[in-house]
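Feature request, filed as a ticket because there's no other form

It would be nice if the structure record came with a short human-readable summary line next to the tokens. Right now we just get the raw output. Example of a typical job, pasted below so the devs can see what we mean:
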Amino acid sequence: MLFRSGFANGDGVDYRGIDAETSSSATTAIYVQNTGSIHVDNGGNAGVYASNTGTGGVVFVNSGLIDPPAYGAFLHSGGNVAAINLIGGNISGNVGIHADTTGSSATVGIRQDAGAIVTGLNGNGIEAFSVNGNITFTGAGFDTVFGNSDDVFGGTVNATGDALHANASGSGSIFVTLGNTSVIDGTGAGQADGIDISSGSGLVQVIANNAKIDGSSALNAGNTGAGIRAVTGGSGNATVILGNTTIGDFSNTHLDSGVVVGVGAGIATVYTDAQTKIGHGAASGEGVDVSGISVTAASSATTAIGIENHGTIHVDNTGGNTNAGIYANNSGTGGVVILNYGTIDPPAFGIFGTSGGNILVNNIGGTISGDVGIHADTSSASTATVTVLSGNGSISALAGDGIQAFGNTSTGNVSVGTSGNRINTNITASGGSGNVTANGINAKGLGNVSVYTASGVTISTTTNGNASWAIRATSTDAGNTTGANVIVDNQATLYGNGSQTAGILANTNGASGTVTVINSGAVTATGTGIDARSINGNTTVYSTGNVVGGNGTGNDGGINVDITGSGNANVTTSGSASVTGNSGTDGIHVRTVSGSIYVNTENSYGSVWGSQDGIDVSGNSTINVYANGVTGNTGKGIIA
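Raw output as currently delivered:
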């Protein structure tokens, strides 16, 4: 059947192609099937209009052509609503398909098969609305028109608004299951998303396999949307799972974000596989503009946010904390877990994670670059922990720290690596053109702080600006009388390149906090090689690796220990370790106030050399120095 003859405006019927209205409680109160062509002028209301003011269902099945009215299809009921666009179906309108139910628990089902097309010329492609009932986007194999979501939504949806838009105002859940080479594009200015689903308190879920989202064009230059946006309130959960899916993979894309997920008190989960790609490339302008994956929560769940990325994420560097390959922010007391196996480049932050509870970031063979590689912090006022792990792969900081692990207000442990899972990744930190602070690893908190690195990797800092360290570990709470211990156990090769760089800083401000540095790696720095500081707690430095230091950053020298209270100092070298202090500094320099000093280099067949003194120690208590192979250039071999 043909309703008027042409596509041009004025060649279609003026108002509605098919108009079906009733007030019925029948299971299927209205059933409309179109296999023909329906042409309605753009000022017209709908190609197909089906409205039931009763509680019965509305079903629309299309394999024909509809163009181009205000609504390609407008479906409304107080009961269930189903729209099915079969192979060959082609629907266009200012809004392609509108489906809504006002029934308290009634559902909306949208099915589209591979080969079908929906176009939103001046609005959303497909939009669906419910209250407490579920909304489902699915495809061929749909068990019944109101059935399961076993099968995948296919075909093409293109819109100047959201391509797929769904809202359940109450507790209804929303399920989007994409596949069959789905092409989903929301191309317009403003927040035009590929997929935008939201619920008052229900589950929102997107599963995409072999889909292409917001990648058929560069989008409107004013686009501020996301490829996928999934948001729910209350205790609702949100899940996004991507396999072999691309988002914003078009040259010079204007898309702001790849995936945006938000929950209230619920749990947010995002997973991408190795074939998933967000953004087009690493060059400027080729990535998405703000974030690859952005997840927010206000939850006390044990794992409020869980992100696992195996894919490739390209994000342009536009600045700010939210400009990240992966951004996770939980304002509640629940935990955040981020696992990265993929490639991220090159935003302000490769990974930015923050929580009011525990946070874990684990880079498992991933390649990360950004101004800052990894940032993890907690704002907990109690004992929440911060843990950053990294094995294999690489971390490149282009204008900042390689790893930042901050227990900002927490007395819980801050750990970068552990004794059983050491940092086993090459880390390069640069001050960039602005010569900003650029630590290889920067770990700090109000409680215990520890850094463990593995052998066979290199950690370096390069800057001529602010003082920077290959490893910086500091406990900052002067009021902490029970913790605030610092441990640096380094097996890596460390470089401090540039006029304002140094090797290892291990420092506690805790009244009784202790400092322990165990070094078996080679440390070479322009500034201090190893700088260890405490107050009333003991400080121990044990090195079997060569240490070369100088002046400019830190307290200067090869190994420096400075204790300002009653703590004792112990410096021991062993094996083939040598210690060198260049540029007018000492090889080993130790100062205490009332604590004892013990220095022993006798078990090392390496040398201790200072361009000033070889070993310089001073204090007001017992001093023991056991040394051989000690040379002072302009000063003494040993001063005690």
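Something like this underneath would help us a lot:
The first strand starts at residue 2 and ends at 3.
The two ends are 105 Å apart (CA to CA).
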